[in-house]
Hints:
Low-confidence stretches: none
Oligomer: single chain
Helix content: under 10%
Shape: globular
Radius of gyration: 14 Å
Amino acid sequence: QVQLVESGGGLAQPGGSLRLSCVTSGFTFSDYAMSWYRQVPGKERELVAAIRRSDNIVNYADSVKGRFTISRDNAKNTLYLQMTNLKPEDTAWYLCKAISLDGRYHYWGQGTTVTVSS
């Protein structure tokens, strides 16, 4: 059974930091590209950051470059998103996603909510 379980969301002040985790099971984590998305009500889901499966090449949305860092620990089957210098516009529901090498399989977590407010 495939599972992706996000955690680490919550309330942060502007300028603060949070670290999201996505613990996975039920598939070979190291064979999958991983990414973080976020969504706010009434808007489309937005790709925040992605990391490739083998060479750890990453890419980020322009809105988070220099503030967020995506990383993965293949030994722990876990994906991370370190978020610093948080802004109110970072408030969203954050989800992790796994994509197989051939693109056939896409798995989503249930998400964790991040609220940035003073």
